[in-house]
Amino acid sequence: MDRMLRRAWMAGLAMVWMAALAHGSAFAESIRVGLTGYNSAAQLTLSASPSLSVSRVDTGESLVAEGTDLILSVQGSKVSVKSGAGEAVLSDGAVLAAPNDPSAILSLVSNGRTRKYRGSVEVSAKNGALRVVNVVDVDDYLLGVLPSEMPDSYPEEAIKAQAISARTYALRNSRKHAAQGFRICDTSHCQTYGGVLAEKPKSTQAVLDTKGMVLTFDGQIADVMYSTDCGGATRNYSSENPTRSFPYLCGVVDPDDIPHICWEQNYTLHDLAVKLIKAGVKGADGLLSVVISKTEASGRALEVEITSSTGKNQISGEKIRSALGLKSTLFSIESTTDGGVAIKGKGFGHGVGMCQTGAKGLALPPHSLTCEQILAHYFPGTAITPAASQTTAQTTHQDIHKAASKGAGKDMAKEQPLPVLLDIRLEAPDQL
Ligand SMILES: [Zn+2]
Ligand SMILES: [Zn+2]
After folding, report:
1. CB 50 within 8 A of CB 100
2. Are 32 and 181 in contact (CB under 8 A)?
3. Which of 106, 125, 133, 123 is nearest to 31 (CA)?
4. Which structural domains are found in the chain, ordered by start?
5. Contact by Cβ (8 Å): 266, 334
6. Can you tell me the mean pLDDT for 161-166?
7. What would the pLDDT profile of 331-341 be if each residue is shown by its tens digit?
8. How far is the CA of 231 from the centre of ligand 2 (A)?
9. pLDDT per position as a tens digit, 53-78
10. Which ligand ends up closest to the CA of 425?
């Protein structure tokens, strides 16, 4: 190679390397997570090793430069910051507390309970209580999310699929909590986030292995949804929300050999009527029969007809599910020989998007799918893409799956009881 050519080649390499760095830093995007556990707290003790600093968010003015155990409390509409024996400093706006070593972990103690978080926290006074927001890199946030969303005992490729789903969920254009000053809350309303104390090794590895990867459709971050167990077939989101079309939230069928939850609940007509009346269902008094009158493609009950001494009424399958506390709307209704009703169902949760039971089964032999293949099964037509490229107009979905395509199912998961997850979260996907 002649010298000129080599120089050009080296320059090219340097550009690629710089582009990769730029991409890395673009993804070190932080997210504002509302820590709802402090909603009624009037006082909070903060510490970090070796020290932390506190400044005003609006002006950047330093309030404490080198604190160890700082007590933050509400003084009317102001935040008071007290360091050791020193005088308390008051701020009439939000304050930002950050470890002086950026890799250190913040400890927050309130009402005798300690929680630990990466990143920094923003504290403000709201209606006589503290409002605490964790400002944290997205992937650091995911470390504290994943173990609450999928057991660490699940196969590696299933956890990686969950990591990409959880990252996609976090980065989509959500405005649910905009009025409260954060993007996402730490409960199952958004995604359960337990901070550093919740972190688990396999989940952490899955976040690292899928670093920065999100699910996209047509170059936009997808509106992912997931639930514990689809009962064998996922639900088409648009079948119950005809005005909203999400082509990748369509119904898919899991392979027959993957075991899904089966359940049964039995009622006398009288007990059933009492429960329906309590849930506000009209015309349940004098109940004579209950039949499913409309089903969705996956077999879920869309509409149920109840016949009573006063006539017939139609109610939604979802209404029956919530009135009776059923695990899903994927059920049949049978009359029992003693004149009662047996509701026989499958699955647990809303069944839209990724099925966690199915993801586990698909990651294990004989399927042994990679996380990419698992996500392609549940979200047809989507691509796995670096999150940072979402800011560019044209996304080429190429050659980006390397981080997410290692061998599958190395680690056999033990059977574990299913976690209680965010299945009840059945909100509309946000408009992109
Ligand atoms: Zn929320
Ligand atoms: Zn399934």
Report:
1. yes
2. yes
3. 133
4. 30-140 (2.60.200), 144-185+194-255+352-404 (no CATH), 262-346 (no CATH)
5. no
6. 97
7. 999 999 999 99
8. 5
9. 999 999 999 999 999 999 999 998 99
10. 1
Identify residues whose C-beta is under 5 A from ligand 1, the ion: 185, 189-190
Residue type, 417: P
Q: Which ligand is nearest the CA of 182, by number? A: 1
Q: Which ligand is nearest to the CA of 174?
A: 1
- Which of the ligands is closest to the CA of residue 227? 2
* 295 alpha carbon – ligand 1 mean position (Å): 30
Find the angle CA(24)-CA(208)-CA(387) to the nearest 5 degrees.
45
Q: State the average pLDDT for the chain.
A: 84
What is the structure's pLDDT at 28? 64
Pairwise CA distance, residues 227 & 350, whole Å:
6
Q: Compute, in degrees rounded to 10, the torsion defined by CA atoms 402, 403, 404, 408.
A: 90
CB 76 within 8 Å of CB 104: no
Q: How confident is the model at residue 417 (pLDDT cuts 50, 70, 90)?
A: very low
Owner of token pair 């599958």:
408
